[in-house]
Write a structure and sequence with these properties.
By secondary structure, the chain is α+β, with helices and mostly antiparallel strands. It has two helices and three strands.
Amino acid sequence: MLPSRSLGTLVGAGGLAVALGLCLDLARLYMAGNELENRSRAASRAAAERLDGSAAGLEAAIRAARAQLASWTASRGSPTSVTVEFAPSPGGIYLERPRLAAKYRFTRVRAQEQVPVYFLSAFGIGPSRAVAASAVSGQ
């Protein structure tokens, strides 16, 4: 049997290891969210630059946004879900496939990805957590 002082040290060290692991997972989630926000902003700007008032411009905007998101895959994979939407004003109703392309000058890119967690899964959180970001740009 361990002396009470050794047992207290062992319990303290175990608690510290768990706290450190949780901090690492939370830091990974925070950094992934920031990175995804930056990727979404860049994709939204790239899409807005392609809008020219035509249906071909909408398609070019969608391709540009997806390409911009895909180009950031060095540190992490591509987002699991990407939505590119268009609206005539920044506070307007956003549609994925508007009929009249001439009025749509704003883009919104919404992206989501799964970030693996290691220590949080021990608490029933799951093997990964979803991180989402959204950005709006216009001409």
